[in-house]
Amino acid sequence: MSEIILASKSNHRRELLKNAGVRFTAQSADINEREVETPLIEAGLGGRDVAEVLAIAKATHISKGNVDAYVIGCDQTLSFEGELLHKVKDMHEAQKRLLNLSGKKHQLNAAVALIKNGEVLWSHVEVATITFRKLDPGFIGRHLSDAGDKVLSSVGAYQIEGLGVQLFEKVEGDYFSIIGLPVLPLLAELRKLGLVE
After folding, report:
1. Average pLDDT, whole number, for the chain?
2. Binning pLDDT at 50, 70 and 90, where does residue 99 land?
3. Annotated catalytic, 75?
4. Quick one: CA dihedral 184, 187, 193, 194, positive or negative?
5. Does residue 197 lie within any of the structural domains?
6. 185 CB-near residues (< 8 Å, 6+ apart)
């Protein structure tokens, strides 16, 4: 059986693939994401394209040291009012992020790519639109206190699979993609290549 490597340190992505029955190993793709995305943003590319390029870059990085392995790269960006937002650094920034998103829509762009020997075999991007309900500052403070530091690992400063679901009025899009990995299209591609049943 061909080796499959997930180029990610995300526990959520690892769990999604494991639960889907995919046999894989995981390696963290330590690339400088800001360095990769800066020229893309300067060229006017949006969050969808940036996520796809980052997913490809991560998989390509891991592919270099793993001959003949199929490497899965993933990335997720958040587009909000024409800007690309990054992970918050601390709980104060998380509070500001949630206040800014309150009562508004944003897009999560979840990209996945499959690379073998440095060659892009396939890539895909799913876009989900999240509408926040109107939140008051007191609720946000209590929410962040209850949710804890794990919100810092998410670009939106929330986790839909936990208490973050209380923040939303409407979710349009694939649940797995919101968590950070478009599992269904990936599984379809892995089946096509004979890598899973």
Report:
1. 94
2. very high
3. yes
4. negative
5. no
6. 112, 124, 126
Q: What pTM was computed for the model?
A: 0.91
In a domain, 15, yes or no: yes
How far, in Å, CA of 174 to CA of 184, rounded? 9
Using one digit for the tens of pLDDT, what is the confidence trace for 42-72?
898 999 999 999 999 999 999 998 999 999 9
110 burial type by CB count under 10 A (0-12 exposed, 13-18 middle, 19+ buried): buried
In SS3 terms, 125-167 reads as EEEEEEEECCCCHHHHHHHHHHHHHHHHHCCCCCCCCCHHHHH
Sign of CA dihedral 45, 155, 175, 74: positive
Domain that residue 47 falls in: 4-192
Q: Which two tokens stand for residue 152?
A: 């810092």
What tens digit of pLDDT does each residue of 19-45 get? 999 999 999 998 988 899 989 988 989
Task: Flag whether pLDDT at 1 surpasses 80.
Answer: no
CA distances 49 to 4, 46, 77, 109, 147, Å, are 24, 6, 9, 9, 31
Query: 156: domain CATH number?
Result: 3.90.950.10
Judge whether 182 lies within some domain: yes
Question: What's the number of domains the chain is made of?
Answer: 1
Angstrom distance (rounded) from CA 61 to CA 83: 27
Set 30, 49, 68, 75: catalytic member:
75
- Residue 165 has a pLDDT of 94
CA distance 94 to 175: 22
